[in-house]
Amino acid sequence: MKVFKQLIYTLVFITVVAGCTPNAISFNNDDDKKKDKDKNNLLLLGLLVLSQDQAITMYTGSMNTSRAGMYRVRLNNGKALVAGGFDSIAKPLYDAELYDPDTEKFSTVNVSADFNRSNIVLLSSGKILYFSNREINENTISPGTFDPETNTITKTGDMIISRVSCGAILLKSGKVLVVGGLDSSGNILSSAELYDPDAGTFSSTGNMNVSRRQGNYVISLILLEDGRVLVASGDGRNKDLSSGLDHVTTMELYDPETGTFTTIGLSSNYPAYSIGSNKVLCYGNSTSDGTNLVVYDVTTGEFSNTNQFLKYSGGSTKLNNGKILFVGGLSSDNKEVYSALQIFDPDTLKVMNIGKMKEPRFGVGLTVLQNGKVLIMGGTNKTGPRIVAPYSDDLTITMYEINALSTAEIYSP
């Protein structure tokens, strides 16, 4: 009823401002047609302003476990896998769940896999390749594949160098590029490997020009249209934090044809999404207006400022139409959580506020379903004291005590 009244008040206001009384509307001449068009545009603008203050998402089934900071991927069968993350006291979670869009329900995945903060990669076969960030059996790391159709885990061949906290991405060839991480002695790595799903084995490829791992700064891996991979960011320190930079700013390109990495520059901008024509949307510097969005042109090696600022972002994903959806967020003083929904259009290079979620949240999991709708999962709706939280069994990151959510919502573009 409240939303309906707001709509009526808005329409009445627009009608009065536009002079849209019954006697005022006429189609007798071109001037009247132009006036009528202007009135319609004003009406649409008023409806857009109104919609920005309303929840435009719908609730769906809740997860069985409250979690934030999880990994997620849409499977070939249309279901969505959500794995790992943290609970409300920043305790690592090692389980996974499946969301079925037909039933709108989550079910627990009953397998003995270590999904906490794992890198999970959807293979062409529909199986999931995962790399644990948890050290087991005296620093022996056991990557594996999860088959969602049979609900089974299969161990892969051993990596050339056992590692945790690495980055991984699926190449156009169907192989998986694995970069960096920490070895069994806690030393940071510059080496890289290739996983062949057909053979189930790992092989060496060229080394990066700098060492990097997942940590306070996350490794960015962007698959470009020409098949190369942009590698950026990451934590440059050993396990004991005794040496190296906390933020790696060296950017590199991996060429799968030659198996080599080439340094292309230095930048503190964080590459986030490929937006076509070998261009990449990046998060720039944070200002009082929000996070500056910049575009990196791989061909020219230049950054261009969009003059657009992302005021909020508690999670993001690329829609089927190529636009980028940003949801929720946290205020700069870490005291307020937002429910805003924003869209970045790579064609216009503009950010638009489009409405709100049912709940404020950040640290969410987002998955684009086969029907184009977006599943928004979990996250947190408030923060507590700043704490040091376990990233793995013996690796920690600084974060906030959280109130993890189990609720989920659906956004329809």
What this model shows, in words?
The chain has 413 residues and is mainly beta. The chain has 2 domains: 2-49, no CATH class; 52-411, Neuraminidase, CATH 2.120.10.80. 9% of the residues lie in helices and 40% in strands. It has 2 helices and 30 strands. It has helices spanning 2-18, 30-51; strands at 58-60, 71-74, 80-83, 96-100, 105-108, 119-122, 128-131, 144-147, 152-155, 167-170, 176-179, 192-196, 201-204, 219-223, 229-233, 250-255, 260-266, 270-276, 279-287, 290-297, 302-310, 316-318, 324-330, 337-345, 350-356, 365-368, 374-377, 380-390, 396-404, 408-411. The strands form 8 sheets. A 4-stranded antiparallel β-sheet has the order 1-30-27-26, with no helix packed on it. A 4-stranded antiparallel β-sheet has the order 2-3-4-5, with no helix packed on it. Strand 24 (337-345) and strand 25 form a beta hairpin. Helix 1 (2-18) runs antiparallel to helix 2. The longest helix is centred in the first third of the chain and has 22 residues, at 30-51. The two termini are 25 Å apart. Residues 1-29, 42-51, 136-140 and 387-397 have low confidence and may be disordered.
